[in-house]
Design a protein that fits this description.
This protein has 357 residues and is of the alpha/beta class. The protein folds into two domains: 22-71, DNA polymerase, domain 1 (Orthogonal Bundle), CATH 1.10.150.530; 78-356, Alpha-Beta Barrel (TIM Barrel). The chain has eleven helices and twelve strands. Strand 10 (267-273), helix 9 and strand 11 form a beta-alpha-beta unit. Helix 1 packs across helix 2 and helix 4 (143-156) crosses helix 5. It binds iron/sulfur cluster. Residues 123, 125-127, 130, 132-133, 172-174, 207, 348 line the site of iron/sulfur cluster.
Length: 357
């Protein structure tokens, strides 16, 4: 369960440079008896150039490259399989060194690209609407495995080093259940000498792990926070999201009221609309009251229908009514259409197709 730490990846005997920060790279080059400035060259190659094999490290001498080849792994998560959707998004399955698979999605929106990332293999939270939740928790992803999904997708889709991308942790796993590795990955991703992604472009979506929210609030810098809310009554939320039995809506609102936000920053509330289940006008009013307690913006997500879910998407008319209701109460609201539905890349669908195979 989520109150127990998830297992970690067991390190291999050979060191793996992919995912090492500058301090670890310094220790690595010291162990190899090389000059300390080599660590900066390795860091540049790994995170600025996004090189994935030692032979690409043309900033190093040939003998050093040969030595690294012989003694040090450079093992980023590898894209094992990809499925392109008609809407332009691409779902990727990433193979980890221990054979575990996680999935991420590349979503271009005009000039803007968003990458949806996984933080764990499986998930302990057990949300009933989510295919990943059915897997249970297998293990945490390491920082390198998290950042490596970004490296792999940026390389596969040919993004330049200066191109801005947004990252959302809405794939497999509860990111705040793996906060230490997540924050180490965050440091790798935001390092201006490396991948250089602006901290505010990274959003972590939680199911409502209050202790994790509090720990995240104490981190500086930190990613933006989103809450996957999905229900406006404790009765229903506890049924679809077991975490609500431990921290109910009042506990969540109280925690979010004290979450230290920067000027202009808001917490995103994600709310999946299920026809005749969570899309009533009364739900809309309760949602507005919840969102009014702290700086928030609401993201309404019409449900992605999938076989066996037992749920239906809301009518367009109801989506419009709820938007009007929230906006009328001064709440910023947007509607998010899930991407990649035809390749099972939308939230909660990531492992469904594989599970069926
Ligand atoms: S919705 Fe998120 S937190 Fe819930 S089971 Fe799925 S991956 Fe885990």
């Amino acid at each position: 369960m989520w109150d127990q730490p998830a297992p970690e990846l067991r390190p291999t005997v050979r060191p793996n440079a992919a995912g090492m920060d500058l301090a670890e790279l310094k220790a690595l080059v010291a162990a190899l008896g090389e000059s300390p400035f080599r660590a900066g060259q390795l860091h540049h190659g790994l995170y600025r150039m996004r090189w994935t094999s030692w032979e690409q490290f043309t900033n190093l001498s040939k003998p050093l490259r040969a030595r690294l080849e012989a003694e040090v792994d450079l093992a980023w998560p590898a894209i094992q399989e990809s499925a392109a959707s008609g809407d332009g998004s691409t779902k990727h399955a990433f193979l980890m060194t221990d054979g575990a698979l996680v999935e991420g999605v590349h979503m271009p929106y005009g000039k803007r690209t968003t990458l949806c990332l996984s933080s764990q293999v499986g998930c302990a939270m057990g949300c009933t609407f989510c295919a990943t939740g059915l897997m249970g928790i297998k293990r945490n992803l390491s920082a390198g495995e998290i950042a490596g999904q970004v490296v792999a997708m940026l390389n596969a889709h040919g993004h330049g080093t200066e191109e801005a991308v947004n990252l959302v942790f809405m794939g497999m796993g509860e990111p705040l259940h793996n906060l230490d590795n997540l924050m180490k990955a965050f440091a790798l991703l935001t390092d201006p000498k490396g991948l250089g992604i602006a901290p505010w472009r990274i959003t972590v979506s939680t199911s409502g792990l209050v202790t994790g929210i509090q720990r995240l609030g104490a981190c500086k810098p930190r990613p933006r926070l989103a809450l996957s809310l999905n229900a406006t009554t404790d009765d229903y939320r506890s049924r679809i999201m077991p975490v609500n039995r431990v921290w109910n809506l009042e506990a969540l609102a109280t925690t979010l009221e004290t979450f230290p936000l920067e000027s202009g920053e808001r917490i995103t509330l994600e709310y999946v609309l299920l026809k005749d289940v969570t899309d009533s006008l009364e739900d809309g009013k309760r949602l507005a009251a919840f969102a009014a307690r702290f700086p928030a913006k609401v993201n309404l997500i019409p449900f992605n229908p999938h076989e066996g879910s037992g749920f239906e998407p809301p009518t367009e008319e109801r989506v419009g009514e709820l938007c009007g209701l929230l906006a009328g109460r001064g709440i910023t609201v947007s509607v998010r259409r899930s991407r990649g539905q035809d390749v099972a890349g939308a939230c909660g669908q990531l492992v469904r197709e594989r599970g069926k195979a």
